[in-house]
């Protein structure tokens, strides 16, 4: 046990997690996170358009007849593009939920929901469990750092991609080994810089969770397809 790193433990715990394992407060937190994320996403379809519009105009060209509905609009997208779109909306007006020094729900919900919609077999309780798992790892990483993420010069990518990947793995029903693979793949997508906040003219901060959500969803799909991730992530 001593040589098992945290990704092994997270993989094992997440694969085994069920809705019935969650406490009442954890279920409530997940539900609130889902509702809050949907609310701020819908708000961003009419606000924050300076940042949202470039993403909308790009994705609107790629209507996929059998795809996932783009939130707020009638066109359909691949699951990955739907995650990019919804994630773009989630932080655009900066009202998404906040815990300690991270925003745990935006990347998690916007990765997990389009994926669940594309599968069509994920029930509500399973979805809540996936969101709870994703929220949990985002907050745990934040607390483990013991100071603001920004103090390290990082944007939110470091915890948020892990959260999106873990929630996606859970939605896909991956076993412990494949869930660990997802975390090992996520390790390579966690870069980010505070220049997006400190600099002038950057719109990246507003749409950042679109990238985190799409990365997390793709990572889950690749792990499900058998792509191995780094041990010891």
Task: Describe what you observe in this structure.
- The chain is mostly helical and 233 residues long.
- The chain contains ten helices and two strands.
- A two-stranded antiparallel sheet has the order 1-2.
- β1 (68-69) and β2 (76-77) form a beta hairpin.
- α2 crosses α6 and α8 (176-186) runs antiparallel to α10 (204-224).
- The mean pLDDT is 92.
Report the total helices.
10
Rounded to the nearest angstrom, the radius of gyration is 16 Å
Shape: globular
Ranges where pLDDT stays below 50 over 5 or more residues in a row are none
Specify the biggest β-sheet: 2 strands, antiparallel
Structural class category: mainly alpha
Kindly report the spatial arrangement of strands forming the biggest sheet: 1-2
Number of strands: 2
Helix content: 55-70%
């Amino acid at each position: 046990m001593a040589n098992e790193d945290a990704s092994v433990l997270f993989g094992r715990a997440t694969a085994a997690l069920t809705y019935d394992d969650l406490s009442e407060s954890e279920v409530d937190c997940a539900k609130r996170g889902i509702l809050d994320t949907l609310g701020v996403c819908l708000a961003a379809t009419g606000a924050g358009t300076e940042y949202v519009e470039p993403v909308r105009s790009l994705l609107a060209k790629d209507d996929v007849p059998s795809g996932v509905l783009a939130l707020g609009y009638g066109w359909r997208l691949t699951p990955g593009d739907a995650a990019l779109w919804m994630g773009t909306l989630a932080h655009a007006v900066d009202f998404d939920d906040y815990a300690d020094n991270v925003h745990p729900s935006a990347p998690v919900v916007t990765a997990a929901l389009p994926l669940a919609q594309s599968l069509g077999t994920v029930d509500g309780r399973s979805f809540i469990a996936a969101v709870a798992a994703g929220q949990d790892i985002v907050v745990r990483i934040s607390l483990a750092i013991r100071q603001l993420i920004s103090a390290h010069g990082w944007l939110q990518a470091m915890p948020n991609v892990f959260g999106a990947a873990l929630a996606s793995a859970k939605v896909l029903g991956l076993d412990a080994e494949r869930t660990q693979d997802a975390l090992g793949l996520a390790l390579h997508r966690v870069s980010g810089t505070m220049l997006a906040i400190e600099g002038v003219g950057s719109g990246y901060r507003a749409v950042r969770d679109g990238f985190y959500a799409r990365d997390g969803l793709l990572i889950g799909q690749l792990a499900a397809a058998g792509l191995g991730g780094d041990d010891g992530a």
